[in-house]
Specification:
alpha/beta, two-stranded antiparallel sheet, transmembrane helix, tRNA threonylcarbamoyladenosine dehydratase, ATP binding, ThiF_NAD_FAD-bd, 11 strands, mitochondrion
Length: 505
């Protein structure tokens, strides 16, 4: 009897466990279906950029506000009057009084007549827009394809719960017209890419050219296309780099795209621009904060997401991946205000005296000197030990070339061991013939090495000394000294250097 009771209890317990497992599975499946359903609804709510069917709202248009309240109606009526000129200018000057005494009447007048374009109206772009509007800029074009979401509210400058689901460009106009009703907004609900750059970055009504463009895009391909277009067409632009995973506002600074460091988005953007022939001349807002233990980091897409199929299908629009980027809400605001501050100072002609970035020029010059010395030894060896052939020898490499190879092609690490300290560049393969190039005769003779960027490899100083002794001046082959993995890595990185070499100024 006791055995029977025990068996019944076991059966009941097993049944309870199975039932719980089935219930849990059902709940999880339901939650997954609900999540997928919400994601599909979100995707379907974003119009297709190429959809021209009658009756379908184009992506480049914004509709009326959903159920505007009395405050909205009042603000829009006031904005219409102000933009038509029916607004006391003394009231505007009173509102801008602090800017006026800081920038002078002439500076404020320039700002009030300025036309600024902001591409990307999320955390960074919204704060830049709010600052420019409050400072007196009268014409602002906003470009963004996205909508306000609940997760936007931790960093967006003006969005409220009532704005969730509204296009970000429309949200900014809705809120800022209540603060600076005289500001005219040109809303472009559209994803930026090179094919529409001419239209989106074109003149304001009446032919006024943009005084400045603020790049607040977080997609690298679009960012590069924007900066390349501005560079080629002489449009003043400032680009915001990555605010995600950053937490130290004291490390945010403005510098040239060719000199920024400790920033992944900046590095990737700079590398792609250099391959297109743009090596400098674009100011960027970036952070020099280093990543470290316990700090937030960008996580890769989970294996579960990859198993669903083409990663491109997981985004709301093509080429936009679904991943959660850790963002401290204060940092995009810092980036946005720094960008807006730069634009204000530039337009008004206010003196700018930025703290220079960490000096790396001396490091690049030291590496160039090492390359020079190494080439002299190689030439001397090939020419039978003659020292006179090295007098006045030049190498066709600049400090800018050194910077590209170290920072971009080799990512600031030795190709041999990955060590990031005491880096040097040295010729990779032992020349089969002379590397000496002679032009002219006598005192007018010029001697140079035929060294190319693709011939150089990044190593630590100790590794370079060994390489020079055993490969360039010795009898060992690359295969004798390095693994197949290192040989393939160097080959890939040299191809990138070759591509850059074709486009460098």
């Amino acid at each position: 009897m006791s055995s029977l009771t025990s068996n019944n209890k076991v059966q009941l317990a097993a049944t309870a466990v199975v039932s719980a497992a089935v219930a849990a599975g059902a709940i999880l499946s339901y939650q997954r279906l609900q999540k997928d359903s919400r994601l599909n609804r979100l995707k379907q709510s974003i119009p297709n950029p190429g959809d021209d069917e009658s009756g379908v709202q184009k992506l480049t248009r914004v509709g009326p506000l959903p159920k505007p309240d009395k405050e909205d109606e009042h603000n829009f009526l006031l904005a219409q009057r102000a933009q038509a000129g029916d607004f006391d200018d003394e009231l505007i000057l009173e509102q801008l009084a602090r800017n006026r005494v800081f920038l002078s009447d002439q500076g404020l007048s320039k700002l009030r007549n300025a036309f600024v374009i902001i591409v990307g109206c999320g955390g960074v772009g919204s704060h830049a827009c709010a600052a420019l509007s409050r400072s007196g800029v009268s014409k602002i074009r906003l470009i963004d394809f996205d909508q306000v979401t609940l997760s936007s509210l931790n960093r967006h400058a003006v969005a409220t719960l009532a704005d969730v689901g509204l296009p970000k460009v429309q949200c900014l106009q809705r809120r800022l017209c209540a603060i600076t009703p005289w500001t005219k907004f040109d809303l472009r609900l559209q994803k930026f890419d090179g094919s529409v750059a001419g239209d989106l970055l074109g003149d304001w009504e009446g032919g006024q050219r943009p005084d400045f463009v603020i790049d607040a895009i977080d997609n690298i391909e679009s960012k590069v296309e924007l900066l390349k277009y501005c560079h080629d067409n002489g449009l003043p632009v400032i680009s915001a780099m990555g605010a995600g995973t950053k937490s130290d506002p004291t490390r945010v600074m403005v510098g040239d795209i060719g000199a920024s460091f400790e920033d992944g988005l900046s590095r990737a953007t700079r590398r792609k621009l250099k391959l297109l022939g743009v090596t400098s001349g674009i100011p960027v807002v970036y952070s020099t904060e280093k990543m470290g233990e316990g700090k937030a980091a960008l996580l890769p897409l989970s294996e579960e997401e990859f198993k669903k199929g083409d990663v491109g299908d997981l985004g709301a629009l093509p080429d936009f991946r679904v991943r959660i980027l850790p963002v401290l809400g204060t940092m995009p605001a810092v980036f946005g205000y720094v960008a807006a501050n730069h634009v204000i100072l530039k337009i008004t002609g206010y003196p700018m005296d930025y703290q220079p970035a960490k000096a790396r020029d001396k490091m690049y010059e030291a590496i160039l000197a090492y390359v020079q010395a190494s080439e002299e030894k190689v030439v001397r060896m090939i020419e039978g030990g003659r020292t006179d052939v090295c007098v006045g020898l030049k190498v066709p490499i600049t400090p800018g070339d050194i910077a590209f190879l170290i920072e971009e092609a080799f990512r600031g690490r030795s190709a041999v061991t990955g060590v990031p300290t005491k880096l040097m560049l040295i010729r990779w393969r032992k020349p089969a013939t002379t590397t000496l190039v002679r032009i002219g005769e006598g005192k007018d003779e010029q001697k140079s090495s035929n060294l190319r960027l693709r011939d150089l490899v990044c190593m630590t100083k100790e590794e370079a000394v060994r390489h020079q002794k055993e490969v360039l001046l010795g009898d060992k082959s690359l295969e004798d000294l390095y693994s197949q993995e290192v040989l393939e890595l160097v080959e890939r990185q040299q191809k990138e250097a070759e591509a850059y070499e074709r486009h460098r100024p």
